[in-house]
Amino acid sequence: MIKTVDIKSMSYEECRNLFASLGEPAYRADQVLEWLHGRQVTSYDEMTNLPGSLRRALAEASPLCAPEVLAVQSSAEGTTKYLIGLADGNAVETVLMEHDYGLSLCVSSQVGCAMGCAFCASGLGGLVRNLTCGEMVDQILAVSLDIATGSQDRRVGSVVMMGSGEPLANYDNVLKFVRLINWKRGYGIGYRRITISTCGIVPGIHRLAEEGLPVTLSVSLHAPDDSTRSSLMKINEVYPIGQLIDACTDYADSTGRRVTYEYCLIGGVNDSKAHAESLASLVRGTLCHVNIIPLNPVEETGFVRPSREAIDAFASTLRFAGIETTIRREMGADIDAACGQLRRRWGRGEGERASDKRRGKG
Fold first, then answer.
1. Per-residue exposure over 51-65, b if at least 16 CB sit within 10 Å of its own CB, e if not
2. 93 in active site
3. Based on CB atoms within 10 Å of each CB, which residue in 178, 262, 264, 348 is the most buried?
4. Which helix (H) or strand (E) holds 294?
5. Catalytic residue among 113, 117, 120, 339
């Protein structure tokens, strides 16, 4: 008899230990995990190289089902946002983005968020709970099942942990997820194609540096000085900018990986030439680049998007100072693409309308 387990959340080692405890050969772990994460099946009946008795025992101990997609919105340029239902009645968002280099998926790590960033929809309702490793994997599975088109090779090739929640506040589950999707017989997503985002939890950055994984670290900076940043991000009162930059420099030195500083540009708040010059002084000489994100407005916050001229001028100031700078390509402007917006609409009973916003529908 197998005790109740969450097999989708199990690491390779945990799965091997489970089957060893049952007197099964170690290769059963390889078989099951390849079915789950390589072939992406949603029932044990499809695992045809397992004995029937083992399939029945697994089905009783850890039932499988396809993730429930509650709503889908697709934008004109190919960005698709999914609202995924969870077993406890909660829901999370994940966003599929089409790039020249392939498909990238933005994954949520928590239901809601405790960080309370002033411009973000994800934290408006606070933190509900952490996601399990399996619930993060299910976001990839749901999208993979939706985009499967027979002979055409449409696979998620990169993952960014930039959905709702703070990944480093759910550290153990996020790291298990990262290692699991890297497994070569599963999703096989290379570490260098995985980005972990943080609003600035300094101990978590140091811990991640010690892991020795060549993942990309993306840091939500959003201001070059403590006063402005604290007004936007409560976390800055705990880990001010000086500590944050030191931790990021340590990460780059330890891993050899360039740190990305995300900078959400908000009209009249952090978009002046003086802000850009201060930012350049702050990060100059470190292994980094700055990614400017023009604000995707959330009606509850009252913040506004800067003009195109202000966006370009901010980027030009950084580039003139020698800072590698990009302006994030706007994706999903015609849908609720900012984190948390679709989930909040669903919670207000507007989900039916959201689910009709498929590509090619009115």
1. eeebbebbeeebebe
2. yes
3. 264
4. strand 288-294
5. 339
Report how far residue 155's alpha carbon sits from residue 93's, in angstroms, rounded to the nearest whole number: 19
Assess whether pLDDT exceeds 90 at residue 293: yes
CB 263 within 8 A of CB 292: yes
Pick the catalytic residue from 93, 135, 166, 262: 93
Active site residue 339: yes
Domain 7-61: CATH class, spelled out: mainly alpha
Of 225, 359, 217, 223, the C-alpha closest to 288 is 217
Non-local CB neighbours of 322 within 8 Å, separated by 6+ positions: 280, 284
**30-36: long-range pairs with CB below 8 Å, 24+:** 30/185, 32/7, 32/58, 33/183, 33/185, 33/186, 34/185, 34/186, 36/7, 36/8, 36/64, 36/186
CATH architecture of the domain covering 68-355: Alpha-Beta Barrel (3.20)
DSSP 61-100: HS---PPEEEEEEE-TTS-EEEEEE-TTS-EEEEEEEEET
Please, what is the average pLDDT of the chain? 90
Predicted confidence band at 360 (pLDDT cuts at 50, 70, 90)? Answer: very low
Question: Would 7-61 and 68-355 be classified into the same CATH topology?
Answer: no
Token pair 């009946």 is found at 45
Domain residue spans in the chain? 7-61, 68-355
| Predicted pLDDT of residue 120 | 83
Confidence at residue 148, expressed as pLDDT on a 0 to 100 scale? 83
Look up residue 171 and give its two tokens: 């550290």
Give residue 180's identity as a one-letter amino acid code: L
